[in-house]
Amino acid sequence: MAQVSLLIGFTLILLGLYGALTNRDILRMIVSFTIADAGVNVVLVSVGYMAHRTAPILDSAVPAGQAAARIIDPVPQVLVLTAIVIGLGVTALMLAYAYRLFRLRGSLDISQFMDLKW
Amino acid sequence: MIRNALIGLMLFILGSAFLTLTMGFEPATELNRTAAYYATHAQEEVGAQNVVTAVLITWRGLDTLGEVTVLFLTAAIVSLVLSRSKAPKGASGSGFLPSGELLTTGTKMLLPLIALLGAYVMANGHLTPGGGFQGGAILASGALLMLLADPSRRFGHKIIHRVESASGLAFVGLGLLGMLFAGGFLDNKLLPLGQFGALFSAGIIPIVSVLIGLKVGAEFASILESLEETEDA
Amino acid sequence: MVSSILILAIGLGTAFGLGLLNRRRAVLALGLTLGALGLMAAMAVGWLIVLAQGAAPVEIYTAGAEPPFAINLRMGLMEAGAITLITLTGLLAVLALRTALTRMGRGSMAVVLVLIMALSGLVMTRDVFNLFVFLELMAISTGGLALLSKDIRAIAAGFKYLIISQLVTILLLVGIIFTYHATGSLNIDDIPETAMGFSGLGLALFLILIAVVLELKPFPANGWALDVYTAAHPGFSAVFSAASGTAMLVVADKLVKAAGPDWFAMFTLLGLISFIGANIVALRQDNDRRLLGYSSVGQLGLLLAVIGQQDVLGEGYLYVAGGLVLSHAVAKAGLFWMSIMVKARGLSDWAAIRVRPPLVIAFATFLAMLTGLPPFPGFYAKWELAQVLATTDRLPILAAILIGTLIEAVYLFRWFGMAMKRETDTPLGPKQIDCMVVLITLAAAFGLGALWGDLSENGNLFATVPMLAALFFLALEPMPAKLKNGLAIMALVYWFAAHAGVYDPMRLIFLLVMILGGAVILLASFNEDGRRVGFYPPAMLMYAGLALLLEAQSTFEFFAAWEVMTLGSYFLILRGKQSEPHALSYMIFSLGGAFVLLSGFALAADGVTPFPLSALSLVPEQVAPWVFALLAVGFMTKTASVGVHIWLPGAHAEAETDVSPMVSGILLKAGLYGLVVLLLAMGRQSLHGVDLVNVLAWIGAISAFVGAVLAVFQEDAKRLLAYSSISQMGYALFGLALMNHLGWLLAVMFVINHYVYKSMLFLAVGGVYKRTHTKLMYKMGGLITLMPFTFVSVLVGIIAMSGVPPLSGFGGRWIFYNAILETDLRLPLVLIFMSGPVGFLYLFRLIHTIFLGQLKDENHQIKEAPIWLLVPQMIFVAFLIGFAIVPGLVLQRVDRFLGTVFGDQPLIWHGRAVESAFGNWNPVAIMVVIVVIFVTLFGILIAKNHDAVKVKQFNIVFSAERPYRPETTHFAWNFFAPYRRAMGFMEMPLVTRFWGGVSEALSGTAEFTRKLYSGNGQTYAVQVILFVVTVYLIALGGVA
Amino acid sequence: MSSFHWVQIPYALLTLFIVLNYGLIMTAVVQKIAARVGGRHGIPFWQNYIDLVKNFAQRSKITHGVMFYLGPVFRLAGGVGLLLFVPTIYGSTWAQNFSFAGDLVLALYFVFFGTLGMALGAGESGHPHAAIGVSRGLAQVTMAELPLALAVYAIAVQYHTLNITEIVAAQQGGLFHWTLFTNPLATVAAMFAFVGTMMRPPFDVVLAPQEIPIGPPTEYHSAYLALMQTNRAIFPVAKTVIYMNLFFGGASSWGEFAIKVFALYMVSAFIGVVHPRFRVEQSIRFFMKWGVPVGVLAILMV
Amino acid sequence: MTLLMLATLLCGAGMIGAALVALLTRQTATAVLAAGLLSLFASVLFVLLAAPDVAMTEAAIGSGLTTFLFFYVLGRIRREDKK
């Protein structure tokens, strides 16, 4: 189960990267990057998954005593939470840049912005 | 064409690296050292039912603080990026479709529900799945809905900044208090752990969740705000 | 001390707090930001002091739980130092950015605060995921702050930066989660030492490390960083290069320490490639900020390599890495902040800083720090690094580092030359605060130099008297030149008097020539009036170097003195009008020679510090020839032997009137002194069966002959003298290489003779130049009547130099003959015999074309050379004649000393005559006989033609008719045409073509590789992934 | 190493007088022989005396400057000094001149004293032809002197001394003790140099009469020229004396001295008469192709 | 083939399909929509992987806000492009 989701996650990352590196349109690049981020999140969570165990909530169903035996590893989930929000932050910033770049040169093609070279 | 092929080959090799990672990976049957500690000590050390929130806000509080700062940064920089570039003269004017009847009445009906859900998710962060970020996101989607319904509507710019700064400062303040009175920076034993499972339990976690929720909500709103402001030339 | 987590809390608190202020109170917001940064800096400094006094590193736990379960921060000496640097850079950056920040509003100030807080967090945190969060904070704030600059291209740069940080995020996150899965904890200390294997933990660690390396802008994959450097506001670029660079280095160090020694090799390799690659490509840069970008990429590469070498550096690691990091950070921040004041972006537009001398000093200091010249921390660090690398025989790494530093020196000093010599029409920015920021950085630079001096066990350069004197003269700048000149002469005479007694005769001769001789030449500087800013500090720096050279006991002191001398003389030569390219080639050859010396000393010391010079003789057998070869090459670059001589003609010819004699008469002797010390200590060495001393003899002979032949064909008087210096130094080198008593006596004779007549001739030609404003000999002619004293000094000079009997030159030739009769070295003698008469040619050309022949119309009313130039010349004439009559006065003591060295006493001194195993030489008798014959014949001639009257100029050639173009009647141009037809093949500039080829190849590769940065953000992303994949494959290959 | 006694001065003057007269007569005789070879009658052998007296008698009111004035003095002092620094007759007490002052090295380098003085004087005269002559002379002499220097080094190593008297002493005792036979290579190299520096064709482009009016001494006349002509008599003889001492066993009596000097001088005369004039680069290449290799062989073989 | 495994496979196929659509489609709008869809599938997968918090966040932020941001910026750009 974990292996399958890992594979899914990695394929998503690779697809995202492929999209980001081949598409010339900036917005499509940012979309590809969000896909890659989603892939990373899937990988992160699937590493923490353990078979036949439940979510790390200690309530009536999972009393504190048996917690160690019944819940899955909470740490990857914490990391993912932060990672998603940071991913959103960076995406929002890139979108703002994309918009400003568009305002600058009137086009969204990355190869239009090459005056800083050599 | 060759360029894409080269990139494809490169990513294939990267993929092979990832593949060796996946092949070498076998899911743990037993909780590792850190997770086992969290599982056993969640109740008496932090007093929160939701172990994820416990770890998120207390044990790895610095991460969350850093995280919130990320959002604060994004909001500030997006407003910097967009504030100085008013829309070119010709292109201004709210371009949104005039919000239909359905949308305005729907918003009026849904808004309280969304606000209630957001508040609930935020407050019960330590009991049920959810917490500061999720609550904030829901509130932000509420603000988004209002924006969609009435594009010319402007939130009080000052209020958003006030809420954002105040909650940030409060969060840091709580952390410092924790360092002075409790065990360390952001330690939640500043307040009594209270009865396990009750609303006001697990020390400062609920307060921090609320603060995070407010801050995240305010930040998303300010991002939308600065996007919106580029409208009025 | 208060807990250091407060540093983060203050940063964050103020950042959030700024939101509460309303929009219009920008100045208050700026005040708050400065206050917060000041507080953070104060805490950091407090911690630094406490930890520097030996307190143990402090662990800070958060959330009241033990580390693996909560995030912990550590505050050790390295962290405290790094944070102090970061917070102070931040403070000064905010000052530099104040206009941009107030314009952008309090949001941007909050971003700066968060950036500084994130960097401090990066340095302190011990948790991998926390590292990721702070890294993201740094990435986003850097992307944001790129907007501060007025340059609209900054937005594109910011976007490219964000693309790359996305890639880094992906790699880092995957790495972190798999490390967590393998080790069970997110804390760095729990990462076990893993081999570089490529499965599970090994691969995860690889991903984390490669992500951190990417953040350190490695060479092939750093187009994005260069764009940020070029477009961003320089105030921010300083933070980006100094503060973020340092923080990432500390992170890299933490991670690689945890990952284990297996990964050091990868770091070193990547670092060196980045260091050399970036420096080569920087050769072709003409935008100043992009050049600084390349330089900081190179320096980060160097530091990455040093981190890779920490297993070998042991406890000296903090000292070396600290020295290099601080030098890089302070210099780079200073240069970026200076670029705020320079409005235009071309390299030669920095000429605007010449308006304010303190800025020129700052510029020179920062460049010296970057290339690791004394007395700054980089020098001590480079010395320590060289010692360690040589002891653990990692010579290829040392060689790579030295070559990289040399290339960096090339483009930095070319830039300095442009700034000093070119003109620009964009004036300097008027703001005082920017200037004040730069001066604070300058003070920090000197403070660090002193600090690193104290820390180094080899002795602090600032503590030595000569260095203090040089700095003292820096303070004297506003005083009039004549007063400073008097002080300088007194200082030199005092130093000579203080040390004359204590030295052995051989060193006494060098002291006499270098220090007392320097004082005599300085007499000529009385001729200049006004303040003459920028002459005396470099001059005294050079003399300080020379004084320390003679004082040096250990290899460190010798090498430090050598580099101080090079630095001082470079600034002196640069003062000449068209001396820019020549000063640059001088600096490159000198630095190249100095680095060869450094590797030689490091190889010899083999870990023993301080390594006394005399211990060179105890160097083990298999290493000794290599040490000998390296040191000999290093010294020969200073005596300009053939092969490394192309810098000399330009440097000596283009220098100022009173600088040429200093540089030619005195500085070349430093090389000879080095060779004397080397040969005294190591004696004969042979490498693969080739006797190195014979090779030296051959090089000496060839340079003697080639120098003389090339001198014959020169049209420029000073170049002629410069080439003749090469020839004379060749003679002296040959003398030394004979390794027998008389050979060394010959060398000493040459040291004295060459100093006297070369300074005399240079001053004379300088005097003529002052009057005729040209150095080209065919433009002069017939000046004997107008400048009689200069003529006399040149006449005596060439008689002495050509070895014609009555004067002291003949003494040198006589000792030479006796010396070669004792050696079995035959073939080089042919070249030496040939260069004797050839010397005669160029000397006659010098005196004939300038003083004899027809006087040109435009030279009719020129006056005699200024009095102050003539005084030293007359002193030298008197000395020459005295030395010719009584050579024993000086030579006898040296002869006795050499007797003790070589154990034989070939010369027997009878009163004033001297006798050797082969012949005898009675200088007094010769002088008397010649003078008597001369006077009697002169009497006869006067008796016959006593009332002869001077004939008018054209009574000779045109029988009193005036030719259409009288100046052509003076036969001076292409004077030795037949000789050129016969010996022209010698003129082929083989050596110049070789070195030209080398520089062409370098700038060719630079031009080719810099096309790599096409400016397209996507291409940069592809390059980053390609870089990761290639390193992965190589590392995989390495492991398999 | 005998020290200086006042009596040596009259002895030296006597030697000087003998050599001066011998020089004047010999050069005139050789000039006559050269003319006779060319089918001409040639000048009377006392011609040089007439020229000398004529020039001395002529009064001159002009000079071209200090160095021009001192030129001939330097020149003659060089010639006389060279003669007096070298012992002319081996074994005779009074013909040792002032050889105590220095050894072979002094003699070798003192040759340049005269040349330097001459060059300075000619340069001061302001006449372009003088300067051209000087530049040609100096250029040629650099390569011409080289075989001599090599030869001198060879015999110095062979005889382990630089003192001329000791070298001559080592060659006494019969013909086959001369350096000519003990070290033929060095002697051949020296003879190359001898021919090259004797200012006779094929190496006399320096003061070639037709091309540039007698080269450096173009502007000299009256007393200046007189001094130069006395030097032109003494200098070749003094140089030949050195060659004689070094390579041909020196002279034990004035008769032997006269014959050997004349014979040596005739060597350069013979070669000069039949050869056309070399240009400077041709003579330089000639010496580089022939003179220097022989010299190098000499110093390698010893 | 437990039910869980089947559900994950389905989700995975959906996600990869959405990703391919996002990469290959002509108009950017469909690409953004595909990304939103992908993020929804991801949140479902997270529920399957017993991570409810993450699922909620991914749903709220991933599909909700990100998609909106994209559409908003796309709208602005498309409108200014026509002028």
Automatic annotation (TrEMBL), chain A:
Localization per Swiss-Prot or TrEMBL: Cell membrane
Membrane topology: Multi-pass membrane protein
Transmembrane parts of this sequence: 29-51, 78-99
Any Pfam family: Oxidored_q2
Keyword vocabulary terms for this entry: Cell membrane, Membrane, Transmembrane, Transmembrane helix
Protein family membership: Belongs to the CPA3 antiporters (TC 2.A.63) subunit C family.
Keyword Transmembrane helix: yes
Assigned GO CC terms: plasma membrane
Name this protein carries in UniProt: Membrane bound protein complex subunit mbxG
InterPro entries linked: CPA3_antiporter_subunitC, NUOK/Mnh_C1-like
UniProtKB/TrEMBL annotation, chain B:
Residue ranges constituting the MrpA C-terminal/MbhE domain according to the UniProt record: 15-86
Subcellular location: Cell membrane
Domain Na+/H+ antiporter MnhB subunit-related protein stretches: 103-220
GO CC annotations, alphabetized: plasma membrane
Position of the signal peptide: none
Main localisation: membrane
InterPro entries in the record: CPA3_antiporter_subunitB (IPR050622), MnhB (IPR007182), MrpA_C/MbhE (IPR046806)
Membrane topology reported for the UniProt record: Multi-pass membrane protein
Source organism, top-level taxon: Bacteria
Transmembrane annotation, as ranges: 64-82, 102-123, 129-148, 168-186, 192-214
Pfam families: MbhE, MnhB
Keywords on record: Cell membrane, Membrane, Transmembrane, Transmembrane helix
Family per record: Belongs to the CPA3 antiporters (TC 2.A.63) subunit B family.
UniProt-recorded name of the protein: Multicomponent Na+:H+ antiporter subunit B
Species per Swiss-Prot/TrEMBL record: Rhodobacter aestuarii
From TrEMBL, chain C:
GO molecular function, one term: lyase activity
Chain ranges passing through the membrane: 6-22, 34-56, 76-97, 109-125, 131-149, 161-183, 195-216, 228-251, 263-284, 291-310, 316-338, 359-376, 396-413, 433-453, 459-476, 483-502, 508-526, 533-550, 556-574, 586-605, 625-648, 660-683, 695-713, 720-738, 744-769, 781-805, 825-844, 865-890, 924-943, 1020-1039
Keywords for this protein: Cell membrane, Lyase, Membrane, Transmembrane, Transmembrane helix
The keyword Cell membrane appears for this protein: yes
Annotated membrane topology: Multi-pass membrane protein
GO CC term, one of those recorded: plasma membrane
Coarse class of the protein's main subcellular location: membrane
Lipid biosynthesis as UniProt keyword: no
Residues covered by the NADH:quinone oxidoreductase/Mrp antiporter transmembrane domain: 127-407, 553-831
Annotated compartments: Cell membrane; Membrane
InterPro entries: CPA3_Na-H_Antiporter_D (IPR050586), ND/Mrp_TM (IPR001750)
Cross-referenced Pfam families: Proton_antipo_M
Family, similarity comment: Belongs to the CPA3 antiporters (TC 2.A.63) subunit D family.
Annotated function: NDH-1 shuttles electrons from NADH, via FMN and iron-sulfur (Fe-S) centers, to quinones in the respiratory chain. The immediate electron acceptor for the enzyme in this species is believed to be ubiquinone. Couples the redox reaction to proton translocation (for every two electrons transferred, four hydrogen ions are translocated across the cytoplasmic membrane), and thus conserves the redox energy in a proton gradient.
The protein's name: Formate hydrogenlyase subunit 3/Multisubunit Na+/H+ antiporter, MnhD subunit
Organism: Rhodobacter aestuarii
Lineage: Bacteria, Pseudomonadati, Pseudomonadota, Alphaproteobacteria, Rhodobacterales
TrEMBL record, chain E:
Residues annotated as domain MrpA C-terminal/MbhD: 14-79
Ranges that cross the membrane: 6-24, 31-49, 55-74
Keywords: Cell membrane, Membrane, Transmembrane, Transmembrane helix
Pfam family, one: MbhD
Membrane topology: Multi-pass membrane protein
Source domain of life: Bacteria
Keyword Magnesium: no
Subcellular location: Cell membrane
Signal peptide: none
GO-annotated cellular components: plasma membrane
Coiled coil (residue ranges): none
Name of the protein in question: Uncharacterized MnhB-related membrane protein
Organism annotation: Rhodobacter aestuarii
